[in-house]
Amino acid sequence: MEADRFRDPGTGLHELAAAGVDVVCPRCASRAVVTPQRRFVCAACGATASWSPGDGPSLWGAPVDPYFRHPLWLTARCCGGRTLWAFNDAHLTLLENSVAARLREGAGMTLLARLPAWLTSAKHRDEVLRVIARLRRPHAGRSR
């Protein structure tokens, strides 16, 4: 999916997390979700947990969910050992659309404006898009 132009919609991590954050279940290693209500749920093994602010601060902008700090499901090595990660399919689509575009129009200090240079570099475009495509495959899981 390559586009000539992409306009940054101004979406933030909090908005992307509102759709749920896909994580690796610490009990069975299946795909689980951290819901917007700050609950961890694994449909595969039935594991659940709740998070409250008393459990410690949330952590945003890392390849773990912001509350329980479970590893994200959508992670892969890319561009010389760096980690490409996304909270969910919507986040992956946003990254894909931005990286694929030859011309990116910004919207201020947004999530996309703060992406690392290696991720948005034209010289890495093909590799990043290949890794995103690999993450989209059913049962792709996370690569270490």
Can you lay out the helices and strands and say which pair or pack?
Blueprint: E1 5-7, H1 13-17, E2 21-24, E3 31-34, E4 39-41, E5 48-50, E6 74-78, E7 82-86, H2 89-100, E8 103-105, H3 117-120, H4 125-136
Parallel strand pairs: 1-8
Antiparallel strand pairs: 2-3, 3-4, 4-5, 6-7
Helix pairs in contact: 2-4
Notable features of this structure?
single chain; alpha+beta; 8 strands
Overall shape: it is globular
**Which stretches of 5+ consecutive residues score pLDDT under 50?**
none
Total helices: the number is 4
Number of E-type strands = 8
Secondary structural class:
alpha+beta
Helix content: 10-25%
Strand adjacency order, main sheet:
2-3-4-5
Order of helices and strands: EHEEEEEEHEHH
Please give the radius of gyration in angstroms.
Answer: 15 Å
The CA-CA distance between the termini, in Å, is 26 Å
The overall average pLDDT, rounded, is 90
Q: How is the biggest beta sheet arranged?
A: 4 strands, antiparallel
Beta fraction:
15-25%
Describe the model.
The chain is of the alpha+beta class. The protein has helices at residues 13-17, 89-100, 117-120, 125-136; strands at residues 5-7, 21-24, 31-34, 39-41, 48-50, 74-78, 82-86, 103-105. The strands form 3 sheets. It has a 4-stranded antiparallel sheet, with no helix packed on it. It has a two-stranded parallel ribbon with strand order 1-8. It has a two-stranded antiparallel sheet with strand order 6-7. A hairpin with a 6-residue loop joins strand 2 and strand 3 (31-34). Helix 2 (89-100) runs antiparallel to helix 4 (125-136). The radius of gyration is 15 Å and the shape is globular. The two termini are 26 Å apart. The mean pLDDT is 90.
